[in-house]
Amino acid sequence: MIFYDCATAPSPRRARMFIAEKGLRVESREISIAKGEQLTPEFRAVNPDAMLPALEIAPGQVLTENLGIAAYLEARFPEPPLMGRSAEEKGAVMMWNAIAETQCGLAVAEALRNANPHMKDRALPGPENFPQIPELAARGLRRIDLFFDKLDRHLAGRDFVAGDGFSMADITCFVFVDFARVVKRRVGPAHGDLLRWYESVKARPSAQA
Amino acid sequence: MIFYDCATAPSPRRARMFIAEKGLRVESREISIAKGEQLTPEFRAVNPDAMLPALEIAPGQVLTENLGIAAYLEARFPEPPLMGRSAEEKGAVMMWNAIAETQCGLAVAEALRNANPHMKDRALPGPENFPQIPELAARGLRRIDLFFDKLDRHLAGRDFVAGDGFSMADITCFVFVDFARVVKRRVGPAHGDLLRWYESVKARPSAQA
After folding, report:
1. Which residues of B touch A103 (CB under 8 A)?
2. How many CB atoms neighbour CB B201 within 10 A?
3. What is the rounded distance in angstroms from the CA atom of residue A107 to the CA atom of residue A145?
C-alpha cells in the first residue's frame, strides 16, 4: 500500500492517525499542498479530485476520502476496532463522525479558505478554482463556536465521543477541533469537558504520527 | 424502532431507501419540514440538531445522520449487504458515498437554500438560523454540473456506482442527483451513462418508498 499524505492538512491527518491506531506501517509519500503538488498531473493521475488523503491499495487501485480508507482498513485489519464493535457502537461512531465532519470540519474549512489571502480562489479543495466568499468565513467561525459548545456538553461524564472506547469519532473530532487553531479557535477552560478529552487524545502516540 | 422521516427532503429519503432495500418494515413518523416541525420542542427532544432522518433504536436512544443509521442497520441486518462485502468494496462504497455527499448533496443544498425565498435565514439545516449568501447559490449550481459530468464518466461501462452490486453509494448518488431537480438540474441525454444508471435505480421499488 502507498499512503499519500500531507503533514499540514487535517484530512490526511485523520487517515494518518487511523493508520497509527491500527499499528500499521504503511509506505507514505508526502504531497505538499503549500506547494500545490496535489494539482500536478502526477498526483491527479493518482486522485483526479486532487485531494488528500489517498491510499493505493493495489497498483492502480486507489481509495480516497477518509471514510473510504477507514472502511477498507477496518475490514482488512479489524483489531483494534476503530469503527465500533456492536451495531449500536458502529452507529454511534458513524453518527459522530458525520456530525464532526459537517459541523466542525466544514466550518473550519469555510472560515480558513474564505479569508486566508494565500487561498485566494481556493475556497474549495479540488481541481476547480472557486472565489472566496467573505460572509462564509464569518459563518464558519460561528459554527465552530457552536460545535465546541455542543461537543463540550456531549463529553460531560464521557471519556470517548462514541461508545466505550477510542474510535474514529474521537480522531475526527480531535483533528478538526485541533485544526481550528488556524482560525484562532482553541479549546480552553471555558469548555472543561472538551478540554479534558482533548488533552487525553493529544497525549496518544497517534496524535504525533 | 421508530423512524423519523420527511417525505419531501433528500436526507431522510436516503435512509428510507436503505430501509426498503433491507426489506425492513419500521414504524415511521412524518415530520413536516415545510411546517417547521423539525424545530419544535417535541422533535428537538428526539434530535437536538433538529435534522432528519433520525432512528430511535431503543427508548431514548436515537441515531441521527444517514451513516449512523446505515452502519447500525447494516450490522444488525447484514443481508442484503448495502455497504460492500469485501474490504475493497466497503472502501469503494464509503468513498463514493462521501464524494456524493460533499460534491453533490452539499452543492444542491447550497444552490437551494441560498436562493429559495421560502428558506430565508435557513441557509443551513439545524436549530440555528443563518442568512442566505447568494454567491453560494451560484457556486452550488456550478458544482452540481461538475458532479453530473464526473458521475457520468465514472458510470461508463458500470451498472453500479461502487463494487459489483447495488449499494448505499447508489442510493446516495441517486437521491442527490434526483433532488437536483429543485434547482432545475435534471439528468438528460447529454449524460448517457448517468441517465442509464439513473433510470435503473429509479425503477427499483425502494425509489418509490
Report:
1. 126
2. 20
3. 10
Q: Do the beta carbons of residue A63 and residue B92 sit within 8 Å? A: yes
Q: Could you give the domains of chain B?
A: 2-76 (3.40.30.10), 87-208 (1.20.1050.10)
In the structure grid, which three cell numbers stand for residue A27, read together? Answer: 509506505
Closest CA to B67 of A91, A170, A73, A82: A91
Neighbouring residues of B176: CB distance < 8 A, sequence distance ≥ 6: B10, B100, B101, B104, B105, B108
Q: pLDDT per residue over A117-140, tens digit each?
A: 999 999 999 999 999 999 999 999
C-alpha distance from residue B80 to each of A118, B24, B38, B189, B197 (Å): 48, 11, 31, 32, 20
Asked if the ipTM is above 0.90, the reply is yes
Residue A144, C-alpha cell as written in the block:
465552530
Nearest to A72 among B61, B91, B99 (CB): B91
* Among A117-121, A167-171, A178-182, the least confident range: A117-121
Nearest to A66 by CA among A97, A30, A102, A42: A97
Which amino acid is residue B198, in one-letter code?
Answer: Y
φ/ψ of A30, rounded to 5, equals: -85, 125
**Chain B residues within an 8 Å CB radius of A71:** 83-84, 87, 90-91, 93-94
pTM assigned to the model: 0.97
SS3 B55: strand
